[in-house]
Structure formats: C-alpha cells, structure tokens
Amino acid sequence: MKSTYIIGEIGQNHNGSVDIAKLLVELVARPIHEELFQLDLKPMDAIKLTKRDLSEELSISQMNRPYDSPHSFGKTYGEHRAFLELSDEEHFEVYKHAKKYGLDFVETLCAKGCLSLLKLFTPDYLKVASRDLTNHPLLEAMAETKIPIIVSTGMAGKKELDEAIEIITKYHSNLSILHCVSQYPTHPDNLNLSTITYLKKHYGQYRIGFSDHTIGISAPSIAVGMGAEIIEKHITIDRNMKGTDQAGSLGPDGIYRMVRDIRVTERWLGKEELYIDSCVESAKIKLERSIAAKRNIHIGDTIELEDIHMLSPGDGFKWSQNQLVIGKKAVVDIPANEIIYDYMIQ
To answer: Which SS3 state, helix, strand or coil, does residue 308 take?
Structure first.
C-alpha cells in the first residue's frame, strides 16, 4: 500500500499571525480514525507556507493602488501584502513547530530574495507556484540549493513545463510535478484529472501529484485513485475568516474528512491482481451454489443429469465438477432440494 504525501497549504491563511499558523500545524497533526472498521490512519505529512519579497512582487503602481475589499488588510495593495507577510524568523518559528509535531515543512518561494530564510533553516521541499513556472531566474536559484522541488502546472502547458524541468534538472532530479488548474475555485468542467495519467505516462521519472482548488473533498481521493502520489489542499481554521483564500479552503472538519478518505482510498486500491480474498470466504460459502438433488434420491439410485440442479450454500460440488456426481450411486437417501455431498455418493 502506497502512502500519499498530503500537504496542507496554509499559504497566507495565517492572516499575518504566527499563532494562527501554529494552530493550523496542530490541526493537521491530529490523529485520523475511521470508525466503522476501527482504523487508525496516518494524518497529513506536511504543511506549506508562502514567502514573498515585496521588492520583487509587483510594479510600484500596482503596489500603490487602493485596495478596497472586505478582505483587505491595508489601504493599498502593497500595505495589504505587507501585513500578510511573516518574517524569515517567523517562518523559522512555524518550521520548528511543525517539526515538533512530526510534520515536514514545504516553503513556496516567490522571489530570489526569499532564499534568505535558508540561512535559518532548510525546508524539506521548495515549492514553485504555478505563476512562477516561467520565472527562469527564480527556478535556477531554487534548483541551485539542491533542495527537492515541487512544481505546479496551473498556468503551464507542455512547453513551459519542459523548459522548467530542463532548468531544474541541471542541478538535481528530485522533482515532483503537480497537476493544477489556477482557477479559484476550479469549475468541474475545467479540472481534467486525466492530466494526472498523462503526466505519469510522459513524466513518470518524477513524482506526480495534484494541487486541488476545487470546492469539497472528492477530487483528491479520485486523484489518488488515478495515481497521484502527492495531494496539496488549502487549509484554514475557519472558512469565514477574513482573507481571499479562506472560503475556498478546508476547515477543520473538511481536513479531517479529506485525509480520512485519502487514507481509506489507499487501502481500497490494493494490488493489481484478481484473487479470492480471505474476507469473502464466508460469503462465498453462504451465497454461492452447489449441486443439489432435484428429486428425492434413494439409496442405490444412479444419479442422472436431470436429477440435479444448483442451490445455496456453496460448500458442495460446483457445476464444473458435475462429472463427480453424474453416474454415481447414492449411499444414503438424499431429499429433494438438499445439497449432494461427497459422503452421500460412490
């Protein structure tokens, strides 16, 4: 059974608060339990934060434009972005908290200047946001660190992906590719999960996964069924909180149910083989059919084809074994509509 690598994407749903980010770490580290079969399941594997360098983010005019929105944390878009940024030291604080709970730490870096936080700690993975797959200078700087890289394809076609891979693999090949659609939320007609099988076919030397922006928890489990080895999903402590990503993220209950369903899906997949599992043996005996007497058969009678038919339970002769019954003599009386067992004939 393969274990899917599940990333809870905090992004900037911490709303500029280290304490909220830590609460999200604790939330995704909760034990997962399946009630009916009493299964203790593995929780999420990692959390992810996003780091921006505002000097490399937007043009001056865009940073200075008024930002009049219910989700604004400042009068201008620049002030809004600045409010939401955690410092390198604060990222390190969340990193240490994640490690305390046994979680990996993934960091989306949005500019070369963000690599400054690597002076404090080394994330388990660096993430390239969809919008930066064509930002070749950033890709080169991230690849040079030799830290494993995850890329999302949300705004990319084959050309953009191939160019990015060429840059990264000059330095290392520890690369994961996530199918993604940069529509928030993603419309069902646009999700195209079949891209996962395409990526596995054409880029199978890398780990293939799915970064989900749909509403709900069904798509990740289906993606796992199609071969996704990594799942990434936005998370929050409260979907009603201020912030543009909150409503489209999973709250505490959604996180729990998504992880539970993914872990159960892993068990569903099993192995590529047709076989009779031991768990169905009792049902097989109870429900399958065996050769039975169609009439009252008396001691000494020779059993003919017209004397038999099939009834449950399935612990007697199968129809494929009828040559072991037809032409045999009954050594006991066999009532009509009772199973014919080996000891009854010779």
So the answer is: strand
